Amino acid sequence: MPNITLLLITTKNNRVKNLKQSVIKGIAWRSTVDISNLILQIVFTAILARLLTPADFGLVVMALLFIRFVKMMTQIGFGTAIIQSQDITQAQISAIFLIQICIACFISLFCYLAAPLAANFFNQSKLIDLIHILTWIVLINSFAFPQIILQKNMQFGGTSILEMLSMIIGNIIGIIMAFKGYGIWSLVFRQMTQAIIFTSGIWIIAKWIPVKPQFTGMKKLFNFGLYMLGSKIFHYFSQNLAAIIIGKFIGVEMLGYFNIAYNLAIVPAQKIQSILTTVLTPTFSQIQNNITNLKNTFFISLFTLGIIFIPLMLGLAAISNNLVLIIYGEQWQQAGLFLTFLAFVGLLKGMEHLLLSIILATGGASTGFRITVIETLASFPLLILGIYFFNVIGLIIAYIIASLISFILTIIAAQNTVADKKLFITATSRTFIIASIMFAITFGYSILIVSNILQTICIQILLGAIIYITLRIKFLTQEERILVKKMPLGNKFI
Asked: Which of 416, 405, 467, 415 is nearest to 441 (CA)?
Protein backbone atom coordinates (compact mmCIF):
# COMPACT_ATOMS: atom_id res chain seq x y z
CA MET A 1 0.00 0.00 0.00
CA PRO A 2 2.75 2.56 0.77
CA ASN A 3 4.29 1.80 -2.64
CA ILE A 4 0.96 2.50 -4.35
CA THR A 5 0.59 5.76 -2.42
CA LEU A 6 4.11 6.78 -3.38
CA LEU A 7 3.36 5.92 -7.01
CA LEU A 8 0.19 8.04 -6.99
CA ILE A 9 2.04 10.99 -5.45
CA THR A 10 4.86 10.67 -8.00
CA THR A 11 2.35 10.49 -10.86
CA LYS A 12 0.51 13.55 -9.58
CA ASN A 13 3.77 15.50 -9.21
CA ASN A 14 4.79 14.56 -12.75
CA ARG A 15 1.43 15.74 -14.09
CA VAL A 16 1.76 19.07 -12.29
CA LYS A 17 5.32 19.44 -13.57
CA ASN A 18 4.27 18.61 -17.14
CA LEU A 19 1.34 21.02 -16.93
CA LYS A 20 3.61 23.78 -15.64
CA GLN A 21 6.08 23.15 -18.46
CA SER A 22 3.26 23.21 -21.02
CA VAL A 23 1.93 26.47 -19.64
CA ILE A 24 5.40 28.10 -19.66
CA LYS A 25 6.03 26.86 -23.20
CA GLY A 26 2.65 28.10 -24.35
CA ILE A 27 3.21 31.50 -22.76
CA ALA A 28 6.60 31.77 -24.44
CA TRP A 29 5.08 31.04 -27.84
CA ARG A 30 2.12 33.39 -27.39
CA SER A 31 4.24 36.22 -26.00
CA THR A 32 6.77 35.95 -28.82
CA VAL A 33 4.12 35.77 -31.52
CA ASP A 34 1.91 38.52 -30.09
CA ILE A 35 4.81 40.97 -29.73
CA SER A 36 6.25 40.07 -33.15
CA ASN A 37 2.85 40.35 -34.82
CA LEU A 38 2.26 43.73 -33.21
CA ILE A 39 5.60 45.11 -34.41
CA LEU A 40 5.23 43.66 -37.92
CA GLN A 41 1.64 44.88 -38.19
CA ILE A 42 2.74 48.42 -37.34
CA VAL A 43 5.49 48.23 -39.98
CA PHE A 44 3.17 46.84 -42.69
CA THR A 45 0.41 49.31 -41.85
CA ALA A 46 2.93 52.17 -42.00
CA ILE A 47 3.85 51.12 -45.55
CA LEU A 48 0.21 50.85 -46.60
CA ALA A 49 -0.60 54.18 -44.93
CA ARG A 50 1.87 55.91 -47.25
CA LEU A 51 0.32 54.26 -50.32
CA LEU A 52 -3.38 54.64 -49.45
CA THR A 53 -5.62 57.36 -48.03
CA PRO A 54 -7.33 57.73 -44.63
CA ALA A 55 -10.66 57.30 -46.47
CA ASP A 56 -9.53 53.87 -47.77
CA PHE A 57 -8.73 52.71 -44.24
CA GLY A 58 -11.97 54.23 -42.92
CA LEU A 59 -14.17 52.39 -45.43
CA VAL A 60 -12.56 49.04 -44.66
CA VAL A 61 -12.97 49.69 -40.93
CA MET A 62 -16.68 50.40 -41.50
CA ALA A 63 -17.09 47.13 -43.36
CA LEU A 64 -15.18 45.20 -40.69
CA LEU A 65 -17.22 46.76 -37.87
CA PHE A 66 -20.34 45.30 -39.46
CA ILE A 67 -18.74 41.95 -40.28
CA ARG A 68 -17.15 41.56 -36.83
CA PHE A 69 -20.52 42.08 -35.21
CA VAL A 70 -22.10 39.47 -37.47
CA LYS A 71 -19.13 37.13 -36.98
CA MET A 72 -19.46 37.48 -33.21
CA MET A 73 -22.92 35.92 -33.47
CA THR A 74 -21.28 32.71 -34.72
CA GLN A 75 -18.94 32.52 -31.72
CA ILE A 76 -21.38 31.14 -29.19
CA GLY A 77 -18.58 30.15 -26.86
CA PHE A 78 -18.28 26.53 -27.94
CA GLY A 79 -14.52 26.89 -28.20
CA THR A 80 -14.15 27.88 -24.55
CA ALA A 81 -16.59 25.14 -23.55
CA ILE A 82 -14.52 22.50 -25.38
CA ILE A 83 -11.29 23.72 -23.80
CA GLN A 84 -12.73 23.76 -20.27
CA SER A 85 -14.67 20.50 -20.44
CA GLN A 86 -12.79 17.43 -19.19
CA ASP A 87 -15.37 14.84 -20.28
CA ILE A 88 -16.38 15.99 -23.77
CA THR A 89 -16.10 13.28 -26.45
CA GLN A 90 -14.71 13.44 -29.98
CA ALA A 91 -18.22 12.79 -31.27
CA GLN A 92 -19.54 15.82 -29.38
CA ILE A 93 -16.64 17.96 -30.65
CA SER A 94 -17.50 16.88 -34.19
CA ALA A 95 -21.14 17.81 -33.55
CA ILE A 96 -20.08 21.27 -32.38
CA PHE A 97 -17.94 21.65 -35.51
CA LEU A 98 -20.93 20.80 -37.70
CA ILE A 99 -23.20 23.20 -35.80
CA GLN A 100 -20.64 26.00 -36.05
CA ILE A 101 -20.25 25.52 -39.82
CA CYS A 102 -24.04 25.64 -40.30
CA ILE A 103 -24.29 28.82 -38.22
CA ALA A 104 -21.41 30.39 -40.15
CA CYS A 105 -23.07 29.58 -43.50
CA PHE A 106 -26.32 31.18 -42.39
CA ILE A 107 -24.58 34.24 -40.91
CA SER A 108 -22.39 34.71 -43.99
CA LEU A 109 -25.43 34.62 -46.26
CA PHE A 110 -27.28 37.03 -43.98
CA CYS A 111 -24.26 39.36 -43.93
CA TYR A 112 -24.08 39.30 -47.74
CA LEU A 113 -27.77 40.15 -48.10
CA ALA A 114 -27.65 42.77 -45.34
CA ALA A 115 -24.78 44.71 -46.92
CA PRO A 116 -27.15 47.48 -48.16
CA LEU A 117 -28.33 48.00 -44.55
CA ALA A 118 -24.77 48.65 -43.40
CA ALA A 119 -24.20 50.96 -46.37
CA ASN A 120 -27.35 52.92 -45.50
CA PHE A 121 -26.39 53.13 -41.82
CA PHE A 122 -22.99 54.65 -42.60
CA ASN A 123 -24.30 56.42 -45.72
CA GLN A 124 -21.53 54.88 -47.83
CA SER A 125 -22.70 53.01 -50.96
CA LYS A 126 -19.16 51.65 -51.56
CA LEU A 127 -19.56 49.45 -48.49
CA ILE A 128 -21.85 47.04 -50.35
CA ASP A 129 -19.12 45.63 -52.61
CA LEU A 130 -16.60 45.55 -49.72
CA ILE A 131 -18.96 43.60 -47.47
CA HIS A 132 -19.90 41.20 -50.28
CA ILE A 133 -16.24 40.12 -50.39
CA LEU A 134 -15.25 40.42 -46.74
CA THR A 135 -18.32 38.58 -45.46
CA TRP A 136 -16.87 35.26 -46.60
CA ILE A 137 -14.10 35.68 -44.02
CA VAL A 138 -16.75 34.64 -41.47
CA LEU A 139 -17.26 31.33 -43.25
CA ILE A 140 -13.54 30.80 -43.91
CA ASN A 141 -12.65 31.43 -40.25
CA SER A 142 -15.30 28.96 -39.07
CA PHE A 143 -13.37 26.18 -40.84
CA ALA A 144 -10.31 27.01 -38.70
CA PHE A 145 -12.02 24.93 -35.99
CA PRO A 146 -9.03 22.57 -35.35
CA GLN A 147 -7.18 25.40 -33.60
CA ILE A 148 -9.53 24.78 -30.65
CA ILE A 149 -8.27 21.20 -30.45
CA LEU A 150 -4.68 22.43 -30.42
CA GLN A 151 -5.47 24.96 -27.69
CA LYS A 152 -7.16 22.29 -25.57
CA ASN A 153 -4.03 20.14 -25.87
CA MET A 154 -1.84 23.21 -25.15
CA GLN A 155 -0.05 22.84 -28.50
CA PHE A 156 0.72 26.47 -29.35
CA GLY A 157 3.89 26.22 -31.44
CA GLY A 158 2.45 25.32 -34.85
CA THR A 159 -0.52 27.63 -34.47
CA SER A 160 1.70 30.55 -33.47
CA ILE A 161 4.05 30.07 -36.45
CA LEU A 162 1.11 29.71 -38.85
CA GLU A 163 -0.54 32.83 -37.42
CA MET A 164 2.60 34.88 -38.02
CA LEU A 165 3.20 33.38 -41.47
CA SER A 166 -0.34 34.09 -42.66
CA MET A 167 -0.14 37.66 -41.34
CA ILE A 168 3.16 38.30 -43.15
CA ILE A 169 1.98 36.83 -46.47
CA GLY A 170 -1.36 38.65 -46.27
CA ASN A 171 0.35 41.98 -45.67
CA ILE A 172 2.91 41.42 -48.44
CA ILE A 173 0.10 40.74 -50.92
CA GLY A 174 -1.72 43.84 -49.67
CA ILE A 175 1.38 46.00 -50.16
CA ILE A 176 2.01 44.60 -53.67
CA MET A 177 -1.60 45.33 -54.64
CA ALA A 178 -1.32 48.85 -53.21
CA PHE A 179 1.81 49.46 -55.29
CA LYS A 180 -0.08 48.17 -58.35
CA GLY A 181 -2.81 50.75 -57.75
CA TYR A 182 -5.63 48.54 -56.44
CA GLY A 183 -6.35 51.06 -53.66
CA ILE A 184 -8.84 49.96 -51.04
CA TRP A 185 -8.99 46.41 -52.44
CA SER A 186 -5.43 45.86 -51.27
CA LEU A 187 -6.72 46.11 -47.69
CA VAL A 188 -9.61 43.76 -48.45
CA PHE A 189 -7.48 41.01 -50.00
CA ARG A 190 -4.92 41.40 -47.22
CA GLN A 191 -7.66 40.21 -44.84
CA MET A 192 -8.88 37.47 -47.20
CA THR A 193 -5.41 36.06 -47.86
CA GLN A 194 -4.57 35.93 -44.16
CA ALA A 195 -7.80 34.05 -43.38
CA ILE A 196 -7.39 31.53 -46.22
CA ILE A 197 -3.76 30.69 -45.40
CA PHE A 198 -4.41 30.26 -41.67
CA THR A 199 -7.53 28.12 -42.17
CA SER A 200 -5.82 25.88 -44.73
CA GLY A 201 -2.69 25.45 -42.63
CA ILE A 202 -4.43 24.70 -39.34
CA TRP A 203 -5.88 21.44 -40.70
CA ILE A 204 -2.41 20.28 -41.73
CA ILE A 205 -0.95 21.13 -38.32
CA ALA A 206 -3.79 19.70 -36.20
CA LYS A 207 -4.26 16.48 -38.21
CA TRP A 208 -7.79 16.38 -36.79
CA ILE A 209 -10.47 14.35 -38.55
CA PRO A 210 -14.14 14.72 -37.52
CA VAL A 211 -16.00 11.57 -36.51
CA LYS A 212 -19.68 10.75 -36.57
CA PRO A 213 -21.34 13.60 -34.61
CA GLN A 214 -23.20 13.00 -31.32
CA PHE A 215 -25.70 15.67 -30.31
CA THR A 216 -26.80 14.18 -26.98
CA GLY A 217 -25.47 15.45 -23.66
CA MET A 218 -24.66 18.93 -24.97
CA LYS A 219 -27.14 21.03 -22.99
CA LYS A 220 -24.48 22.14 -20.52
CA LEU A 221 -22.20 23.21 -23.36
CA PHE A 222 -25.00 25.18 -25.00
CA ASN A 223 -25.87 26.97 -21.76
CA PHE A 224 -22.24 27.93 -21.20
CA GLY A 225 -21.90 29.06 -24.81
CA LEU A 226 -24.99 31.27 -24.71
CA TYR A 227 -23.72 32.98 -21.54
CA MET A 228 -20.42 33.64 -23.28
CA LEU A 229 -22.30 35.03 -26.29
CA GLY A 230 -24.09 37.56 -24.08
CA SER A 231 -20.77 38.70 -22.66
CA LYS A 232 -19.26 39.03 -26.13
CA ILE A 233 -22.13 41.18 -27.40
CA PHE A 234 -21.66 43.76 -24.65
CA HIS A 235 -17.88 43.53 -24.98
CA TYR A 236 -18.14 44.21 -28.72
CA PHE A 237 -20.08 47.42 -28.18
CA SER A 238 -17.89 48.56 -25.28
CA GLN A 239 -14.83 48.21 -27.57
CA ASN A 240 -16.29 49.49 -30.86
CA LEU A 241 -18.99 52.01 -29.99
CA ALA A 242 -16.68 55.02 -30.46
CA ALA A 243 -15.64 53.81 -33.94
CA ILE A 244 -19.27 53.16 -34.92
CA ILE A 245 -20.32 56.68 -33.87
CA ILE A 246 -17.37 58.29 -35.67
CA GLY A 247 -18.19 56.36 -38.84
CA LYS A 248 -21.88 57.22 -38.59
CA PHE A 249 -21.71 60.92 -37.72
CA ILE A 250 -18.28 62.20 -38.84
CA GLY A 251 -17.09 60.19 -41.82
CA VAL A 252 -14.62 57.73 -43.30
CA GLU A 253 -11.48 59.87 -43.12
CA MET A 254 -11.85 60.58 -39.41
CA LEU A 255 -12.55 56.89 -38.82
CA GLY A 256 -9.32 56.08 -40.68
CA TYR A 257 -7.37 58.40 -38.37
CA PHE A 258 -9.09 56.91 -35.33
CA ASN A 259 -8.31 53.35 -36.43
CA ILE A 260 -4.58 54.04 -36.86
CA ALA A 261 -4.40 55.57 -33.36
CA TYR A 262 -6.56 52.77 -31.90
CA ASN A 263 -4.19 50.11 -33.24
CA LEU A 264 -1.19 51.84 -31.65
CA ALA A 265 -2.82 52.50 -28.27
CA ILE A 266 -5.45 49.82 -27.60
CA VAL A 267 -4.07 46.76 -29.40
CA PRO A 268 -1.03 46.54 -27.05
CA ALA A 269 -3.49 46.44 -24.13
CA GLN A 270 -5.34 43.60 -25.87
CA LYS A 271 -2.07 41.70 -26.28
CA ILE A 272 -1.44 42.13 -22.56
CA GLN A 273 -4.91 40.72 -21.93
CA SER A 274 -4.06 37.61 -23.95
CA ILE A 275 -0.81 37.01 -22.05
CA LEU A 276 -2.28 37.79 -18.62
CA THR A 277 -5.28 35.53 -19.20
CA THR A 278 -2.93 32.68 -20.08
CA VAL A 279 -0.56 33.19 -17.15
CA LEU A 280 -2.34 34.73 -14.21
CA THR A 281 -5.87 33.31 -14.32
CA PRO A 282 -4.77 29.72 -13.61
CA THR A 283 -2.23 31.01 -11.07
CA PHE A 284 -4.85 32.97 -9.12
CA SER A 285 -7.27 30.02 -9.39
CA GLN A 286 -4.84 27.65 -7.67
CA ILE A 287 -4.32 29.92 -4.65
CA GLN A 288 -7.78 31.51 -4.40
CA ASN A 289 -8.52 29.81 -1.07
CA ASN A 290 -5.38 31.21 0.56
CA ILE A 291 -6.19 34.90 0.90
CA THR A 292 -2.68 35.84 2.07
CA ASN A 293 -0.93 34.23 -0.89
CA LEU A 294 -3.59 35.58 -3.24
CA LYS A 295 -3.11 39.13 -1.97
CA ASN A 296 0.68 38.94 -2.15
CA THR A 297 0.66 37.49 -5.67
CA PHE A 298 -1.84 40.12 -6.79
CA PHE A 299 0.30 42.92 -5.34
CA ILE A 300 3.43 41.61 -7.10
CA SER A 301 1.54 41.31 -10.40
CA LEU A 302 0.13 44.84 -10.14
CA PHE A 303 3.46 46.39 -9.23
CA THR A 304 5.41 44.49 -11.90
CA LEU A 305 2.97 45.33 -14.69
CA GLY A 306 2.52 48.92 -13.54
CA ILE A 307 6.18 49.85 -13.22
CA ILE A 308 6.69 49.04 -16.92
CA PHE A 309 3.31 49.49 -18.60
CA ILE A 310 2.24 52.80 -17.01
CA PRO A 311 5.31 54.83 -18.12
CA LEU A 312 5.21 53.20 -21.57
CA MET A 313 1.62 54.28 -22.22
CA LEU A 314 2.08 57.78 -20.79
CA GLY A 315 5.30 58.05 -22.78
CA LEU A 316 3.35 57.03 -25.90
CA ALA A 317 0.86 59.83 -25.18
CA ALA A 318 3.72 62.33 -24.86
CA ILE A 319 5.36 61.48 -28.20
CA SER A 320 2.16 60.63 -30.09
CA ASN A 321 2.09 63.50 -32.58
CA ASN A 322 5.72 63.15 -33.64
CA LEU A 323 5.49 59.34 -33.66
CA VAL A 324 2.57 59.34 -36.09
CA LEU A 325 4.33 61.78 -38.42
CA ILE A 326 7.49 59.65 -38.49
CA ILE A 327 5.75 56.29 -38.96
CA TYR A 328 2.78 57.14 -41.16
CA GLY A 329 3.55 60.50 -42.78
CA GLU A 330 2.02 63.99 -42.75
CA GLN A 331 -1.35 62.95 -44.19
CA TRP A 332 -1.99 61.07 -40.93
CA GLN A 333 -1.23 64.01 -38.62
CA GLN A 334 -4.81 64.02 -37.29
CA ALA A 335 -4.23 60.50 -35.92
CA GLY A 336 -1.60 61.92 -33.56
CA LEU A 337 -4.29 63.85 -31.67
CA PHE A 338 -6.37 60.69 -31.33
CA LEU A 339 -3.33 58.76 -30.12
CA THR A 340 -2.62 61.29 -27.35
CA PHE A 341 -6.03 60.59 -25.82
CA LEU A 342 -6.34 56.90 -26.70
CA ALA A 343 -3.02 56.13 -24.99
CA PHE A 344 -4.77 56.94 -21.70
CA VAL A 345 -7.59 54.56 -22.64
CA GLY A 346 -5.01 51.90 -23.49
CA LEU A 347 -3.40 52.42 -20.09
CA LEU A 348 -6.72 51.94 -18.29
CA LYS A 349 -7.62 48.88 -20.37
CA GLY A 350 -4.24 47.22 -19.89
CA MET A 351 -4.36 47.55 -16.11
CA GLU A 352 -8.02 46.56 -16.09
CA HIS A 353 -7.22 43.24 -17.77
CA LEU A 354 -4.98 42.31 -14.83
CA LEU A 355 -7.68 43.27 -12.36
CA LEU A 356 -10.22 41.16 -14.27
CA SER A 357 -7.87 38.16 -14.16
CA ILE A 358 -8.18 37.87 -10.42
CA ILE A 359 -11.93 38.50 -10.51
CA LEU A 360 -12.53 35.75 -13.07
CA ALA A 361 -10.07 33.33 -11.45
CA THR A 362 -11.97 33.50 -8.16
CA GLY A 363 -15.37 32.78 -9.70
CA GLY A 364 -16.43 36.35 -10.46
CA ALA A 365 -17.51 35.85 -14.10
CA SER A 366 -20.88 37.49 -13.38
CA THR A 367 -19.09 40.48 -11.81
CA GLY A 368 -16.98 40.97 -14.92
CA PHE A 369 -20.09 40.68 -17.07
CA ARG A 370 -21.94 43.31 -15.03
CA ILE A 371 -19.00 45.73 -15.29
CA THR A 372 -18.98 45.33 -19.09
CA VAL A 373 -22.74 45.95 -19.21
CA ILE A 374 -22.41 49.10 -17.10
CA GLU A 375 -19.55 50.39 -19.25
CA THR A 376 -21.54 49.79 -22.44
CA LEU A 377 -24.71 51.41 -21.12
CA ALA A 378 -22.73 54.41 -19.82
CA SER A 379 -20.71 54.76 -23.04
CA PHE A 380 -23.62 55.33 -25.40
CA PRO A 381 -25.13 58.51 -23.87
CA LEU A 382 -21.68 59.88 -22.99
CA LEU A 383 -20.36 59.40 -26.52
CA ILE A 384 -23.48 60.84 -28.14
CA LEU A 385 -23.44 63.90 -25.87
CA GLY A 386 -19.70 64.33 -26.35
CA ILE A 387 -19.87 64.31 -30.14
CA TYR A 388 -23.01 66.50 -30.19
CA PHE A 389 -21.56 69.31 -28.08
CA PHE A 390 -17.79 69.10 -28.74
CA ASN A 391 -17.44 67.07 -31.95
CA VAL A 392 -14.73 64.43 -32.14
CA ILE A 393 -12.73 65.76 -29.17
CA GLY A 394 -15.84 65.49 -26.99
CA LEU A 395 -16.33 61.92 -28.15
CA ILE A 396 -12.76 60.94 -27.24
CA ILE A 397 -13.06 62.56 -23.81
CA ALA A 398 -16.37 60.72 -23.29
CA TYR A 399 -14.58 57.49 -24.30
CA ILE A 400 -11.96 58.12 -21.62
CA ILE A 401 -14.67 58.83 -19.00
CA ALA A 402 -16.55 55.61 -19.85
CA SER A 403 -13.31 53.62 -19.66
CA LEU A 404 -12.50 55.29 -16.33
CA ILE A 405 -15.91 54.26 -14.93
CA SER A 406 -15.25 50.64 -15.89
CA PHE A 407 -11.71 50.88 -14.51
CA ILE A 408 -12.83 52.16 -11.10
CA LEU A 409 -15.56 49.51 -10.80
CA THR A 410 -13.01 46.82 -11.67
CA ILE A 411 -10.56 48.13 -9.06
CA ILE A 412 -13.28 47.99 -6.38
CA ALA A 413 -14.31 44.44 -7.36
CA ALA A 414 -10.70 43.20 -7.50
CA GLN A 415 -9.83 44.73 -4.12
CA ASN A 416 -12.95 43.16 -2.59
CA THR A 417 -11.74 39.82 -3.91
CA VAL A 418 -8.54 40.06 -1.85
CA ALA A 419 -10.19 41.93 1.06
CA ASP A 420 -7.87 44.92 0.78
CA LYS A 421 -9.40 48.27 -0.26
CA LYS A 422 -6.03 50.03 -0.63
CA LEU A 423 -4.03 47.39 -2.49
CA PHE A 424 -4.24 49.01 -5.95
CA ILE A 425 -3.18 52.43 -4.64
CA THR A 426 -0.35 50.86 -2.64
CA ALA A 427 0.96 48.94 -5.64
CA THR A 428 0.71 51.63 -8.33
CA SER A 429 0.38 55.16 -6.83
CA ARG A 430 4.10 56.04 -6.87
CA THR A 431 4.44 54.76 -10.41
CA PHE A 432 1.42 56.78 -11.58
CA ILE A 433 2.72 59.99 -9.98
CA ILE A 434 6.28 59.70 -11.30
CA ALA A 435 5.12 58.63 -14.79
CA SER A 436 2.76 61.64 -14.83
CA ILE A 437 5.68 63.97 -14.03
CA MET A 438 7.62 62.37 -16.88
CA PHE A 439 4.65 62.86 -19.23
CA ALA A 440 4.24 66.55 -18.33
CA ILE A 441 7.91 67.35 -18.94
CA THR A 442 8.33 65.36 -22.19
CA PHE A 443 5.01 66.53 -23.63
CA GLY A 444 5.82 70.11 -22.69
CA TYR A 445 9.21 69.82 -24.38
CA SER A 446 7.60 68.99 -27.74
CA ILE A 447 5.34 72.04 -27.46
CA LEU A 448 7.88 74.58 -26.20
CA ILE A 449 10.95 73.47 -28.19
CA VAL A 450 10.52 73.63 -31.97
CA SER A 451 13.10 71.52 -33.83
CA ASN A 452 13.50 68.60 -36.23
CA ILE A 453 10.81 65.94 -35.59
CA LEU A 454 13.24 63.02 -35.37
CA GLN A 455 15.54 64.97 -33.08
CA THR A 456 12.63 66.04 -30.88
CA ILE A 457 11.25 62.52 -30.43
CA CYS A 458 14.71 61.11 -29.63
CA ILE A 459 15.22 63.78 -26.97
CA GLN A 460 11.71 63.14 -25.59
CA ILE A 461 12.40 59.42 -25.23
CA LEU A 462 15.84 59.91 -23.66
CA LEU A 463 14.60 62.66 -21.33
CA GLY A 464 11.55 60.65 -20.32
CA ALA A 465 13.60 57.53 -19.58
CA ILE A 466 16.12 59.45 -17.44
CA ILE A 467 13.39 61.26 -15.47
CA TYR A 468 11.28 58.16 -14.85
CA ILE A 469 14.08 55.72 -13.98
CA THR A 470 15.87 58.21 -11.71
CA LEU A 471 12.77 59.25 -9.76
CA ARG A 472 11.26 55.76 -9.61
CA ILE A 473 14.44 54.27 -8.13
CA LYS A 474 14.75 57.14 -5.66
CA PHE A 475 11.22 56.63 -4.33
CA LEU A 476 11.14 52.83 -4.18
CA THR A 477 9.89 51.41 -0.89
CA GLN A 478 11.85 48.60 0.71
CA GLU A 479 9.29 46.04 -0.46
CA GLU A 480 9.34 47.47 -4.00
CA ARG A 481 13.14 47.45 -4.04
CA ILE A 482 13.15 43.71 -3.32
CA LEU A 483 10.70 43.08 -6.17
CA VAL A 484 12.71 45.17 -8.64
CA LYS A 485 15.90 43.24 -7.83
CA LYS A 486 14.10 40.03 -8.83
CA MET A 487 13.11 41.47 -12.20
CA PRO A 488 15.31 40.89 -15.30
CA LEU A 489 18.19 43.43 -15.20
CA GLY A 490 16.78 44.75 -11.91
CA ASN A 491 20.17 44.58 -10.19
CA LYS A 492 21.62 46.78 -12.92
CA PHE A 493 19.47 49.72 -11.82
CA ILE A 494 19.66 49.33 -8.03
From this structure: 467
